[in-house]
Design goal:
- The structure is a single chain.
- The protein has three domains: 54 residues, Alpha-Beta Plaits; 276 residues, no CATH class; 74 residues, Orthogonal Bundle (3-methyladenine DNA Glycosylase II, Chain A, domain 3).
- Helices cover 42% and strands 11% of the residues.
- The protein contains 16 helices and eleven strands.
- Helix 11 links the parallel strand 10 and strand 11.
- The protein starts with 9 loop residues before the first strand and ends with a helix.
- The model has no long low-confidence stretch (mean pLDDT 91).
Length: 436
């Protein structure tokens, strides 16, 4: 799917918001303000990482996903299943039981995204071997991280691996197979991703590396889990549907992608704040001995996504059980030159400038100077009481006309104190004149 205006999955339910400022302290791109007692998301800055969803004590932040019944708009319904779904169930993980349960919900076919992940790993190996690139390469699998780079680290755009996410390659391959083997019209086929995070929903509307996405919808893993749990628990003899290899399934964990490359010169970092620290190191050219950086916005990788059910550390243990005991065969898709070419980006990444103060350079310089002057006059405590995440952010908001200096409680107190002094002096003068 494709949308002309940039779509964001992360949104705010103002009826639940209490204006507590918890979200502004945890947003990595300073995309949230609290004004008039309610949070406000600055869409241009949001990377849909879902941190605000995780930390909001009132559940006022949520992710927009597709209603399950949308699958019935299509004659042939395909579920694109992320491997992070397998570890959400408290019973011993049984991939075949999960996939069989999904078919019982109304899908005609299930496709393991882990299969496409194996192919992406092979494509990445080929890229590392045969292409010239700046070191280190940065994985493009996490769309929240890629958007973070576009906003805050434009110098690192050439470092991002120009290869599709497994979701897109998987949708492409399974649709082509359905058309060739079953004779379906492309418009009759609906491919729905079972998503663990909001960023991948956003990516289905505003995809990376291609003009439009082949994913027709995204269903929240939490929502599907509630429907799937009773079916999985009752499934005794599931169909033998699992075909993905161990390396593809391991992508659900942070470190799974980089391990599949068989390159010792890699690092895997998870958690958006840790990712930012590593990207800063890369930008300063302090990691030139590393060939590949796997970066996941969520702690634990996709198993820690905001739309998952299970604690990520428990999920990681279950994933280890799967990887230790699985007898799954490798992917039935063979990696060849067609897949190599199909998996490469067709549209390059571009810098998203949301930090500029004005389109006119001269005016921007004037505003920057004013912003620095305002910032110097603020207490620089970054307390968040003003509704902005930092004093610098408040100074920027003031210059942009979104806030006033007295939004700062310290400046307001100074102003009140000054007014009180002036009123006392005025009253003293009036009293003195009255005694003459």
């Amino acid at each position: 799917m494709k949308q002309e205006q940039y779509f964001h999955s992360v949104t705010l339910d103002t009826s639940k918001c209490k204006g507590c400022t918890t979200c502004i302290r945890h947003c990595p791109t300073e995309a949230i303000r609290v004004r008039d007692g309610k949070a406000k998301i600055i869409k241009e800055r949001c990377i849909d990482c879902g941190e605000c969803i995780k930390v909001c004590p009132y559940h006022a932040k949520k992710a927009i996903t597709d209603d399950f019944d949308r699958i019935f708009d299509y004659k042939y319904k395909i579920a694109l299943v992320a491997p992070s779904l397998y570890v959400q169930f408290k019973s011993k993980p049984d991939i075949n039981a999960v996939l069989t349960g999904i078919l019982k919900l109304g899908f005609d076919e299930v496709f393991e995204v882990a299969r496409a992940a194996e192919l992406i790993s092979e494509t990445t190996k080929d890229f590392i071997k045969n292409e010239k690139y700046p070191k280190p390469l940065i994985s493009s699998a996490c769309p929240a991280v890629v958007r973070l780079i576009r906003l805050r680290f434009p110098n690192l755009l050439p470092n991002v691996v120009p290869i599709l996410a497994p979701i897109e390659l998987g949708a492409m391959l399974v649709k082509e197979k359905a058309i060739a083997d079953k004779g379906y019209n492309p418009n009759d086929i609906g491919a729905f991703f079972i998503t663990p995070c909001a960023a991948k929903v956003t990516c289905s509307y505003s995809p990376l590396g291609i003009e439009s996405s082949l994913v027709d919808g995204c269903i929240s893993m939490k929502d599907l889990y509630l429907k799937l749990l009773p079916i999985v628990n009752k499934t005794v003899n599931p169909q033998k549907l699992a075909t993905a290899g161990i390396e593809g399934i391991a992508w659900a964990n942070n470190g799974g992608e980089s391990s599949a490359l068989k390159n010792e010169r890699h690092i895997a970092v998870d958690g958006i704040w840790n990712v930012i620290k590593v990207l800063e190191e890369v930008e300063k050219e302090k990691l030139d001995s590393i060939d590949f950086v796997e970066a996941s916005a969520c702690v634990g990788g996709c198993i820690g996504g905001p739309l998952t059910v299970e604690n990520p550390f428990v999920a990681k243990t279950r994933m280890s059980t799967i990887l230790d005991n699985t007898t799954l065969s490798p992917s039935t898709f063979s990696w060849d030159e067609y897949i190599n070419n199909a998996a490469r980006w067709k549209v390059p990444l571009e810098y998203e400038s949301v930090m500029k103060l004005d389109d006119d350079l001269q005016q921007a310089m004037v505003k920057l100077e004013k912003m620095e002057e305002i910032f110097e006059g603020l207490p620089q405590l970054d307390c968040g009481s003003c509704g902005a995440p930092s004093c610098k952010a408040l100074a920027e908001d003031i210059v942009r006309g979104f806030a006033v200096e007295t939004d700062c409680v310290f400046k307001l107190r100074e102003r009140v104190k000054k007014l009180a002094t002036e009123m006392a002096e005025l009253e003293g003068k009036r009293y003195g004149q009255g005694n003459k």
